[in-house]
Amino acid sequence: MIPDDSQSRYFTSNPTPKALSKHEALVREFVDYHVSTNPNTRIALVTSGGTTVPLENQTVRFIDNFSAGTRGATSAEYFLREGYAVIFLHRQYSLLPYSRHFSHSTNCFLDFMDESGDGEVVVRQEYQQKMRRVLEEYQYAKKNRLLLLLPFTTITEYLFELRSLATLLQPLDSRALFYLAAAVSDFFIPRERMNEHKIQSSEVENGKKSGDGKQLVVNLDPVPKFLTTLVSQWAPRGSMIVSFKLETDPSLLVSKAEQALEKYGHDLVIGNLLTTRKWEVVFVTKGGQERWVRVPKAKRSRSVSGIEELVGRAEKNKPSDEEVDLSGGEVHEGLEIESLIIPELAVLHQERINNGSQRA
Ligand code: 9Z3
User: Fold this and answer.
1) Does a structural domain hold residue 271?
2) What is the rounded distance in angstroms from the CA atom of residue 346 to the CA atom of residue 360?
3) For a substitution probing ligand 1, which of 48, 51, 71 has the most ligand atoms within 8 Å of its CB?
4) For residue 272, what is the domain's CATH number?
5) Range of the domain at 256
């Protein structure tokens, strides 16, 4: 597929992120290190978290989305368990692999600690085991230089970073895997139309609706479909590319995922619904295959925003009652769905490496 002009215009008319050259140097070093120490090394580029859309160049206000980076941070840990080195391209201040266990607002790290009585700060007894396991995995990744953390904030920073990083992964060929879990904005304000300074309430247009007759009208342009160019130009030819499709309407999910796969011609689209994403996803691959990955009912974590009744609703061929099991059941410590997704991807990726298959 030939990328349209909007792609190249995007990169010439929007500013290069300040951190880009530093990030490029880090990635070069990371790739060189892993390629030279292990010729069979596999590197996963995991993108994670939301992208902001600034309304002003000196940004006071911006449009954002819901993503906390749970999918990305959790998946990165399971990729590391599968033996991958991971580049974690994440929204700054979103969840990070390992520290995510203790940094969430409902998992405040201070609640894991106590005073010992003799002046020491210690980990509370009930958390010792979990914290030791997480700490061991974290230290292993650190010692072996397996995890590279690169932050971004805006949609433009994200796209510049993705383009550079994909190109720098060329030496990996089929041993590179792209796992695009970041929630990427579809709309943005181009640099030439963006206010330099904070938008003043006194400057907004006279409109018809609000109390004092004023409205802030924001015109957003569509973000160019970067996946097209990632697949056809930036990414190594033999690499595996996995994108995510997020929907809220169960009746659209599978068809939208199929359309994305058809349009971009990559390897796999993982579809998920906003309200059930922690318990089920659908793998959509070439040839219209739809395969659901679900956490069994009894192992589902509780979720404030999730709607468990919607599990199974997006499936074209409705699952049997037994599979969906809406009858209730004891809830154990939740099984993370990423622990099911990532080992499957590792198998698919290995097959691809072994077969030397390439995208058309
Ligand atoms: C996803 O669908 C992710 O699974 C979530 C994860 C964002 C839902 P959380 O961070 O949520 O764990 O809270 N990500 C990709 C959504 C997306 O923006 N896809 C685009 C598209 O479908 C670009 S690949 O067009």
Assistant:
1) yes
2) 22
3) 71
4) 3.40.50.10300
5) 5-355
